Amino acid sequence: MHPIWSAIERRLLVKLGTAGLAALALPGAARAMVAQGFTHGVASGEPGPNSVMLWTRYAASSDTDLTVEVAESADFAKVVAGGTVRASAERDFCAKMVVDGLDPGRWYFYRFIAPDGGTSVFGRTRTLPEGATSAFTLALFSCANLPFGHFNAYAHAAARQDIDLVVHAGDYLYEYKIGQYPTLKEALPGRLIQPSHEIVALADYRLRYASYRADADLQRIHQLYPMIAQWDDHELTNDAWSGGAQNHQPDEGEWSVRAAVAERVWREWMPVADTRWRHYEVGDLATIFLPETRLTGRDKQFSVGNIVRDAGDPAAALRRFRETGYVDPERQLLGADQESWLTRGIASSVAAGKRWQVCAQQVIMGSTYSPPESAGWFGADAPDYVLERIKSAQLAATAGLPFNFDAWDGYPAARARLLGAAQSAGANFVSLAGDSHNSWAFDLPHDGRPAGIEVAGQSVTSPGIEASAKAASAADRAAALRGSSPQLRWVDTERRGYATVALTPDTVTANWHFLETVGQKSLALAGTHRMTAQHGRNRYDA
Questions:
Q1: How far apart are CA 484 and CA 103, in angstroms?
Q2: Are 534 and 510 spatial neighbours (Cβ–Cβ below 8 Å)?
Q3: Cβ–Cβ under 8 Å, residues 54 and 96
Q4: pLDDT digits (tens, 9 = 90+) for 233-248
Q5: Rounded CA separation 528/397 (Å)
Q6: Alpha-carbon distance 74 to 125, whole Å?
Q7: Strand pairing partners for 432?
Q8: Coil, strand, or helix at residue 30?
Q9: Residue 317 to residue 391: CA distance in whole angstroms
Q10: Beta carbons of 512 and 457 less than 8 angstroms apart
Q11: pLDDT reading at 19 higher than 80
């Protein structure tokens, strides 16, 4: 049991009563109350004003029909919705169903019941509001590498009472073999993953999800809040694009097969719809768009090494590239169909009077350029791949190019189309992102005018720039990055945690919450950074 949960449970007891406390018992804390076949807790997602998706896993010797109950109170005195769902071997004994007929904007409790009467842990979920909505708070997570540390960010958010919806922007898990990322020296003892090798086949992906979802803090965040989620690259493999990935080799089979397997297992183990992109209406306050930026339409990432290979003058080759291939108007990140869906949706949201248009996607949209000072941040003992990246970033900077071609910076024409469409529609555009492991706040201009803001959240555990850039302080790194990147309003390159984004009709307030440690279980915060943007301005306040 997490060392602080006893105090949290006492608060819940006051709020919910004895039945509520039992219902929200920690995964594993009340194992005797839970039927043995329920192996990984419960989860909910895909909320609407009248419906929500519920998930569990029930491992048995054969396919099993489970009863689902949804109630207004934690004692289940009044069951208001439910049904029957099958946990089958075909889906790794994961079961999920959409329950409808619910009221907008309220909390519900739910559970799964096995044929012998045994129950899952009880979960709590929430429908989206309808009509006038004065406030709504999102919690933003990304990049949770289990061997790098404890999931204290999930635990901290689960202890709060002011979150309405969890957004996971990707890298929910990682594909690497034991000892690769992290190395055996970097891995936290006791944070074990399965299988030990890199995940490639169907059984591999399933076992990796099972090992991650055994974590009590990850189970807890799923148990208490609905989550909308999208994969990034590591749910597939590193630096994935529509036709392959950096971490997919010919001896690992056809890329299309591996990608299909990864997507299948993602849908088995997550409370997500069977569509790659979707949107959610938060009353009259906001529309949240959840696009997919890896498999559907992404062209292969640019590589500085490829651009300058065999070039007599690498800097000149990069300058030519900046004026030609880099700005290719045909280049895609989302793909034409998805891009059209997103831009039409933004315009429809504005026309419907929604105050905010939130794009909860995976990779950073703001532009970042490598500062000259960064050449001295990394010692000779840094990993080879880090040193190669720094060399490439410095070369790119001399040609006026950004350093991360895997983000929207590698797809400037696609970004310009999206921001231009948001601007033309009169949107109040907010991009949410993960991927980078560090914390960033960007203004997003287009054609010299404000087009939106970005809240890019730090990782749950995965190390960021600070892990290799040890020759410079966090303050010096931040100052240099801000100096080289005009859109960048604030950055933290040091700490792990999560972000919350509080929406009201007049403001969006981003809070980056930094945990003191991931090396041991703790809910202690090292600090919080807050930034606000006013409706109608499409830039952060001064």
A1: 50
A2: no
A3: yes
A4: 999 999 999 999 999 9
A5: 31
A6: 11
A7: 360, 455
A8: coil
A9: 15
A10: yes
A11: no
| CA 520 from centroid of its chain's CA atoms | 23
Report the helix count and the strand count for the chain, using DSSP H and E. 11, 22
d(CA 173, CA 143): 7
Beta strands in 256-369 (DSSP E): 278-282, 286-290, 356-360
- The pair of three-digit structure tokens given for residue 167, joined into one six-digit string: 């957004």
Cα-based distances in Å from 95 to 127, 205, 434:
20, 17, 28
State in Å, rounded, how far the first CA of the chain is from the last one.
43
DSSP state for residue 119 in the 8-state scheme:
B
Alpha helices in 399-445 (DSSP H): 412-425
Identity of the residue numbered 535? H
* Higher pLDDT pick, 274 / 380: 274
Are 271 and 55 a contacting pair, CB within 8 Å? yes
In angstroms, the CA 123 to CA 489 distance is 39
Angle between helices 202-213 and 216-224 (to 10 degrees): 80
C-alpha torsion sign, points 389, 391, 392, 397: positive
CA distance 383 to 392: 14
371 neighbors 484 (Cβ within 8 angstroms): yes
Neighbour count for residue 84 (Cβ, 10 Å): 11
Type of residue at 261:
V
Compute the distance between CA of residue 335 and CA of residue 160 in angstroms, rounded to an integer. 38
Tally the C-alpha atoms within 13 A of residue 526's C-alpha that lie toward its C-beta: 14
Q: Where are the alpha helices (DSSP H) in 270-332?
A: 304-308, 314-323
Report the distance separating Cα 16 and Cα 357, nearest Å. 34
Q: Which residues pair with 107 in a beta bridge?
A: 126
Query: What is the residue-wise DSSP string for 358-371?
Result: EEE-SS--S-----
Neighbouring residues of 281: CB distance < 8 A, sequence distance ≥ 6 = 48, 49, 128, 287, 354
| Cα–Cα distance, 119 to 2 (Å, whole number) | 23
> Higher-confidence residue: 468 or 299?
299
**Alpha-carbon gap, residue 32 to 28, rounded angstroms:** 9
Grouping H, G, I as helix, E, B as strand and the rest as coil, residue 500 is strand
Look over the chain and give the mean of its residue pLDDT values, rounded to a whole number.
93
Coil/strand/helix, residue 168: strand
pLDDT higher than threshold 70 for residue 33: no
Q: Say which residue the tokens 């190395």 belong to.
A: 183
Residue 372: how many other CB atoms lie within 10 Å: 13
For residues 534 and 478, what is the distance between their CA atoms, to the nearest angstrom?
A: 25
- C-alpha 107/C-alpha 382 separation (Å) is 49
Contact indicator for 47, 280 with CB cutoff of 8 Å: yes
Is residue 156 a contact partner of residue 525, using CB atoms and an 8 Å limit? yes
Q: How far apart are CA 42 and CA 224, in angstroms?
A: 9
Structure tokens at 7: 């105090």
